[in-house]
Amino acid sequence: MKEPLARVRTSTLLGYGTGQLGAQIFRDTPAVLLPIFMTTMLGVPAWLSGIVILIPKLWLIACDPLVGAYSDRQKRARGRTPFLLVGAILTSLSFLALFAITDYGDPRIAAAAICLLFFIGSTAFSIFSVPYLAIASELSLDPHERTRILVYRMLFTTVGVLIGVGVAQPLVFALGGGAYGWHVMAISLALICLVTMLVPAITLRRVAMLPGGATPERFLAQLKPVLANTPYMVLLATCFVQGIGQASGYTVLGFVFLYALQAIWLVPAFIVVMVVFSGISQPIWLALSRRWGKPRTYVVSSVLWMAVTISWFFAKPGSDVLVTLPLFGPLATQHILILLRAAIIGLTNSGFLLLSLSLLTDTVDYQRSRYGVAHEGVFSGLFSAAEKLAFAIGPLIAGVVLSVYGFTSSTGGAATQSPRAIGGILLLYSLVPAGTQALSLLIFSRFAIEKHEPASDAA
């Protein structure tokens, strides 16, 4: 196979990036809406909803690395795009099934059914997402060009967030908040997932990628050199700890706007502002990473994100009318502060997420220079498994905290919450993710990649 040139064509970048739109919807929408769906439609207690999400994620600790290792072994013969094709179709069907039934008759049956459906959907998503992430390390040898590749992925990430978080929940409530609203949302987003996730499966089939070396048949033989890659393990631990806090916040995002801010109508504006500033920031972070280096730029974006995240603890409903804006309508002082936070979150969050993925490709390249074969699938599988485990632990923590703070579950719609419960919601959206981000930066202080001469033969 012909080795790719340093400069990747824009058509390839677009084809690769488009897949992230649907992938982001499947990643975000269940994380944000399944807790609300289970606690307000199916009567599942908050603590049990966290366990429902945790069980499938625990399976992915094994599933993601195994998918990555298998795709490595299949790369030379078939490439990775068959995985994208199968994963795209099954993931979209699974998304639809999650929200298809709105009355199981018993909360325990509902919890078991959702757990099984999410287990199937998570497995399908693993078949797509792990090889998809591995491809980012195979399109170029140039570290800054790989950041450029991931800029396109991040741009489609922001669109996925806009649809999966900014549109999904308001759509449900705009249609009455009942079964009809959930069904329309599920069908619409499942179709978007299917179409966009099929794009890289179709467009990347003939794109030149870095050739794969001889890959051991046994999984443990593939895994051993990856675990010996110190920069990768530091980055893995950093992103895992960071992800736990992020997932805790994601879990209560809908609760924040529904209960703490009493402004569910503001979610689309919040997401639009965040997405716009995230898109604007991409070339900025690319330029800064070239000038300052990726690790330093990663730390700067993380610290700024922590500062704005802490401020959420003091958010409250708006009571005045400060200004009336086109498209937004009348906005209180608190609403303006929310949109200001959205802008800063868009600027900073996209920075450390972009650079964490770019640093991942650097650790893969470091592996290639040492051993002559990179095991991209195993790298991506472990990284993806850690992320998904973090996004399972986060909802579990959120469910426990909400229960401790007295959150009230209901069926058929949202119930009124006590001030104490609302305080727990804000805690999960502010101090918890800021604290885990700070801890992750302590771990990241150990990150360093030594220069290596290219390996003469494959390992």
Description of the structure:
With 459 residues, the protein is mostly helical. It has one domain: MFS general substrate transporter like domains (Growth Hormone, Chain: A). Helices cover 75% and strands 1% of the residues. It is built from 15 helices and two strands. A two-stranded antiparallel sheet has the order 1-2. Helix 1 (10-40) runs antiparallel to helix 6, helix 2 runs parallel beside helix 4 (107-135) and helix 5 (143-174) runs antiparallel to helix 12 (333-371). It starts with 9 loop residues before the first helix and ends in a 15-residue tail after the last helix.
User: How much β-strand is present in the residues?
Assistant: under 5%
The main sheet orders its strands as: 1-2
Measured as a percent range, the helix fraction is over 70%
CATH class: Mainly Alpha
Number of domains: 1
Q: Estimate the mean pLDDT confidence.
A: 87
N-to-C series of helices and strands: HHHHHHHHHHHEEHHHH
Low-confidence stretches: 453-459
Number of strands: 2
Major sheet size, sense and barrel closure? 2 strands, antiparallel
Q: What is the subunit organization of this protein?
A: single chain
Count the DSSP helices: 15
End-to-end separation in angstroms reads 19 Å
Name given to the CATH architecture: Up-down Bundle
Rg result:
21 Å
| CATH superfamily (homologous) name | MFS general substrate transporter like domains
Label the structural class. mainly alpha
State the shape. Answer: globular
According to CATH, the fold-level topology is Growth Hormone, Chain: A
